[in-house]
Design goal:
Layout (H helix, E strand, L loop, with lengths): L6 E5 L4 H12 L3 E6 L18 E5 L14 E4 L6 H6 L1 H21 L3 E7 L26 H21 L3 E6 L2 E2 L10 H11 L3 E4 L5 E3 L1 E2 H14 L5 E3 L4 E3 H12 L5 E4 L14 H7 L7 H13 L8
Parallel strand pairs: 1-2, 1-4, 2-3, 4-5, 5-6, 6-11, 7-10, 8-13
Antiparallel strand pairs: 9-12
Helix pairs in contact: 1-6, 3-4, 5-7, 7-9
Bound molecules: nicotinamide-adenine-dinucleotide.
């Protein structure tokens, strides 16, 4: 059985994944302090938790040193612009979140003898030459391309976390999160699924970058959060891939969303993004063996829940 945490600091907790993680931890009886500077997130994402006595929201930039009163046994480092639109607009802030933010989070965790969980990304694999990607693969990243501000920030954050583990016996874990989707993604942040949903609902053309034959493997946010919590509770240092190995091409994704929305939007192709990976699919053998974790939510189910949330419809129980 996974370890129970008494009190968690969720850095970047007012973002998309962070807000779901805060809810999940509270549901398990963990007290949560959410620290966020709202650069890409928003207090609205955790507004439903405002009256919960075990929840506290602190506005702070993690790249600046900080103190939070009380004891903690878990620190989760999610603070970073994550969508291409955001990190291309905030290149220096993204690098600093990976570097200074991770350093401050590790020091805070060390002071509290808390476990530290780093939210890394499948982007550390870059445009991969191995497929599917195992944790042992070192990746193929352009260190000076526009996307490098995100990819290299995360690679540095991993290196720092791994060094903390080796040289300071830190209780750490690295999660390599693959594309995650679900309610509370921003409709205009440039990520594929919210963009396609917004376009399909409006009846606008669905815009695909490149030929649409590039593949993605997308994981519903509840599954990602269960994976993060399983890794936090496991004692495993990682890196561990957290993602859904169901791979499909971007064109199929656009068509599926259009069908689920019931839209007649045409599909339009645009120029491919610079350094856009052709294929992306996690090998999750390690997560299955060491955490007993694998995704449960089907693409159809996850997309339906996400579309319902964008439409403002309640999510049907038991789906
Ligand atoms: P998000 O932008 O919704 O959330 C990030 C949160 O961090 C936001 O609330 C933002 O305001 C906060 N933040 C950023 N810089 C900060 C700083 N300096 N100080 C304090 N708070 C700061 O993104 P997300 O999709 O929820 O991603 C969360 C984490 O998971 C990120 O680290 C991201 O790299 C990682 N990740 C996400 C995905 C995905 O598909 N969503 C995939 C791989 C990895």
């Amino acid at each position: 059985m996974s370890k129970h945490f008494e009190r968690a600091l969720v850095i970047g907790g007012a973002g998309f994944i962070g807000s779901h993680l805060c809810e999940h931890l509270l549901g398990q009886g963990t007290e949560v302090v959410c620290l966020d500077n709202f650069v890409t997130g928003s207090p609205d994402n955790v507004a439903q938790l405002a009256g919960v006595p075990e929840f506290r929201l602190v506005r702070h930039d993690v790249t600046e040193p900080f103190r939070v009163d009380g004891e903690f046994d878990l620190v989760v480092g999610l603070a970073s612009p994550a969508s291409p639109r955001h990190y291309l607009r905030l290149p220096i802030e993204t690098l600093e979140a990976g570097a200074f933010g991770t350093r401050n989070a590790l020091e805070f965790a060390e002071k509290h003898s808390a476990r530290f969980l780093l939210a890394s990304t499948s982007e550390v694999y870059g445009d991969p030459t191995e497929h599917p990607q195992r944790e042992s693969y070192w990746g193929q990243v352009n260190p000076i391309g526009p996307r490098s501000v995100y990819d290299e920030a995360k690679r540095y954050a991993e290196a720092l976390t791994a060094a903390w583990f080796r040289s300071r016996a830190g209780d750490v874990a690295i999660a390599r999160i693959f594309n995650t989707y679900g309610p509370r993604m921003q409709a205009d942040d440039g990520r594929m699924i919210p963009t396609f949903i917004r376009q399909a609902l409006a009846g606008d053309p669905i815009t695909i970058q490149g030929d649409g034959e590039q593949t993605r493997s997308v994981c519903y946010v509840d599954d990602t959060v269960r994976g993060l919590v399983a890794l936090a509770g496991s004692g495993h240092p990682g890196p561990v891939n957290i993602g859904n190995p169901h791979e499909l091409c971007v064109r199929e994704m656009a068509e599926q969303i259009r069908d689920l929305v019931g839209s007649a939007s045409p599909i339009r192709h645009e120029a491919a993004a610079v350094d856009d990976p052709r294929r992306r699919c996690p090998d999750i053998s390690l997560a299955k063996e060491s955490l007993g974790w694998e995704p449960r939510v089907s693409l159809w189910d996850g997309l339906t829940r996400t579309i319902d949330s964008v439409r403002g419809e309640p999510i049907a129980a038991g789906r």
